[in-house]
Each structure stands twice: as C-alpha cells, then as structure tokens.
Amino acid sequence: METHPDILEMRSRHEAAERVATTPRAQAVETLAFLTGLYLAASPWIAGFNNLTTLAVTNLIVGIAYALLMSGGFGRAYERTHSMAWAACALGAWTIVSPWVVSGDVSTTRSIVNNVIVGIVALLLGLAASAAARSARSDRSDQPNRSNRSAGRGRGMPAP
After folding, report:
1. pLDDT score for 157
2. Percent of the chain with pLDDT over 90
3. b/e string for 142-157 if b means 16 or more Cβ within 10 A?
4. Cα separation of 10 and 119, whole Å?
5. Which pTM was predicted?
C-alpha cells in the first residue's frame, strides 16, 4: 500500500473527510437526521394515526430507510455521502406528499400536519448534509493534485 501511486490523494481525501466529520455542525446534522428518521418511523403511533394502515406502513418504511441512510454517512467517503444526502432529500419530499399519494383515505389533519413538518425537517437536513459533502469535495479540489505528478514516475514517465 505504501507504494500505491495515489497514496497522497487517498490520504488527503481521508483527512478532509475526518475534518468535516468532526465538526459540531456535521455531528448535529447526522444526529438530528437519525432522530428524524426514528420519529418518522414511529410517528403513526405517536401522533395517533396508526389506524390508517397504508400511511403507517409508508412512514415506518421511509423512516427506517431515512435513519439508516443518514446515520454514519459523514465519516465515510464523501462521494457517496453526497448521493445519500440527495436520496434523503427525496425521502423528505416523499414524506411531505405521501398523505395525498398513498392509496386509501389517509389524509387526516394529524397525518398531514405530521408528515409535512417531518418531511420539511428531513428535506432540510438532507440539504444540510449535501452542503457539507459538497464543501468537503470543494476543499479537496482546492488542494493541488500531487498524485498526478507522482503517478507518472512509476510508469516510466519523466518527472515534471
């Protein structure tokens, strides 16, 4: 591994990910997103619309998916975190419209207010995660690409 031609780039990418992942903002977004997903999964029983079975099942599935998608993503590779954050935004948007889209008459005041508020929070947290991932990628691209200079040396190419 020590002789890998892209070791410097890989190391700088890991260091950038660690810097962003340890910020209080990133940790707060990750924690709030996880709690939002857990609440969404349990919301039919908390808000009292668990008799609307299609919406209850939808919220349970989307809430678990959101919590799993957003938990722990900041400490990983930011190329994937950026995509996961946009998927979380889609789940937040789905949560907003789901009382009107799922089959059956599930649009009660409780279910609409609950899903719209939780969906907006989920959407905003997904956007915040996407912004954090984008800033980490732009921080990495601002640094000079040292691996391109060293990569050619091992392949019989002259040094620049």
Report:
1. 43
2. 34
3. eeeeebeebbeeeeee
4. 36
5. 0.70
pLDDT at position 95 is 95
Using one digit for the tens of pLDDT, what is the confidence trace for 36-61? 999 999 999 999 888 878 899 999 99
Q: What are phi and psi of 62, to 5 degrees?
A: -65, -40
**Interatomic CA distance for residues 154 and 54, integer angstroms:** 60
Angle between helices 53-70 and 24-47 (to 10 degrees): 170
Burial class (CB in 10 A: 0-12, 13-18, 19+), 33: buried
DSSP state of 160: -
pLDDT of res. 12: 63
CA distance 39 to 37: 5
In which residue are the tokens 């915040």 written?
128
8 Å CB contact between 71 and 35: no
Residue type, 83: S
The pLDDT of residue 71 is: 79
20 close to 136: Cβ distance less than 8 angstroms: yes
Phi and psi torsions of 22, nearest 5°: -95, 0
